[in-house]
TrEMBL record:
This is F-box domain-containing protein. SUPFAM superfamilies: F-box domain (SSF81383). It comes from the Eukaryota. Residues 1-25 are annotated as: Disordered. InterPro entries: F-box-assoc_dom_typ3, F-box-assoc_interact_dom, F-box-like_dom_sf, F-box_dom. Residues 37-77 form the F-box domain. It comes from Brassica oleracea.
């Protein structure tokens, strides 16, 4: 009986997979074989695989990789993987280490009736050093901002595939270097659904000491993912994002518009609306409309396609949710919710991770300990249930910082 020869996949080229004949040397002998896999069959095969398996299959050859790169990728894969359902993305910061985990966000176990913890899935990815902050995920991608000596940069990553793209570094400096100008950069991440482009917005604030007579100044840049180059933007209204402890975390992209709270002249608070496609700025006043300023503990969330602003009040044990009904007319609606959950002590570190399809708002603590809990607040019934997540790596640490994002959808498209 003839011995079956093992096929060496490392010798297969794009021509093999598209139907051509090739010669390959196996065990020192010249062997002719033919592999004919039509492109539509390849697409059908890939469409039935889990997302992580698709990511691995991209390494087979350029043809398979090019399929995943196509702009109409989602149309080529009509069979949805179970992994494409919305998930919760966690990022735990312990010292200089950052650990990514994810879990399905719909859990039916009511509080106190099921004590078992949900096991979260770990995603290994190295974002490098000098991590300062994470922006909210956009269509499966995460933007992190990093700061070094007199410069800053952003890293765009895909926790599922492990792919990383680093933007060019820009210096943090003022107009006159000899004037002791201090600078700081903030990054926001958005997506244009029409041209299907990811963009990074960078706002650099510059200020100097009064004795050197340097007033506040800001510069604006944008980078389209895939171009590798920053471009300067003009903005008629001088502003810079609000931050907490030097970190801006409130940017959110909804339907092609980046929203973030900002401070303008005379200490006035506004919501900045940056159109990702046209790269134009517009502003929504909030001080006089809402009756209170947006402070550094306020959080922007997506409320069924509309911008929501959350205000936590630790003293009154409640939070307010304002929804922008009309950005042109600056029309807002207001709701007040009271927390009935004794274990959820309202403080300035309680954050909403987002609103999910069930109409619940997910709440978490930015600084916490193991076990890690997520609180599901039902806006209609006004009840809270707690879900505990098992994160083995956190058992070694007493306290850690947490970033939590709702409605995360895994994606394997190449950047």
């Amino acid at each position: 009986m003839a011995q079956r020869k093992q096929l060496n996949w490392s010798t297969i080229s794009d021509d093999n997979l598209s139907g051509s004949n090739k010669r390959s040397s196996i065990s020192g002998q010249e062997t002719r074989y033919s592999v004919s896999i039509p492109v539509d069959v390849i697409i059908n095969i890939l469409s039935r695989l889990p997302l992580k398996s698709i990511a691995q299959c991209r390494c087979v050859c350029k043809l398979w990789s090019s399929i995943a790169r196509r702009p109409n990728y989602n149309l080529l894969f009509p069979i949805k993987s179970p992994d494409e359902t919305p998930r919760i993305l966690f990022a735990f910061k312990v010292g200089s280490n950052l650990f990514f985990y994810s879990s399905p966000q719909h859990h039916q176990n009511p509080d106190n009736n099921n004590n078992s913890a949900i096991v979260a899935t770990r995603h290994d990815i190295n974002l490098g050093s000098d991590l300062q902050q994470l922006c909210r995920p956009v269509r499966g991608l995460v933007c992190s901002q990093h700061i070094g000596k007199n410069c800053s940069w952003a890293v765009i990553s895909n926790p599922i595939t492990g792919e990383i793209v680093t933007t060019p570094k820009l210096t943090i400096q003022g107009i006159h270097l000899k004037e002791r100008v201090r600078g700081k950069a903030d990054y926001c991440f958005g997506y244009d659904p029409i041209d299907k482009q990811f963009k990074v917005l960078r706002i650099t604030r510059l200020c100097g000491s009064p004795e050197h007579k340097i007033s506040f100044y800001a510069k604006y840049h944008v980078l389209t993912l895939g171009t590798g180059a920053w471009r300067k933007l003009q903005c008629s209204t001088l502003h810079y994002p609000l931050d907490e402890n030097g970190i801006c975390e409130n940017g959110i992209c909804i339907n092609g518009v980046l929203f973030y709270p900002a401070l303008v002249k005379h200490r006035k608070h506004m919501i900045v609306c940056f159109d990702v496609r046209s790269e134009k700025f517009s502003f929504v006043s909030v001080d006089y409309v809402l009756g209170l300023p947006i402070h550094r503990y306020s959080v922007l969330i997506n409320c069924n396609g509309k911008l929501g602003v959350n205000f936590c009040d630790a003293a009154c044990k409640h939070f307010e949710l304002w929804v922008l009904e009309d950005a042109t007319k600056h029309t807002w609606s207001k709701r007040i919710y009271i927390s009935p959950h004794a274990s959820l002590n309202w403080d300035n570190y309680v954050r909403p991770a987002g609103m999910i399809g069930s109409g619940e708002i997910l709440l978490y603590r930015m600084y916490t300990h193991n076990p890690f809990n997520i609180f599901y607040y039902n806006l209609e019934k006004k009840i809270i249930r707690r879900v505990t997540f098992e994160v083995p790596v956190l058992e070694k640490f007493d306290h850690f910082g947490a970033f939590t994002f709702a409605n995360y959808v895994e994606d394997v498209k190449l950047m």
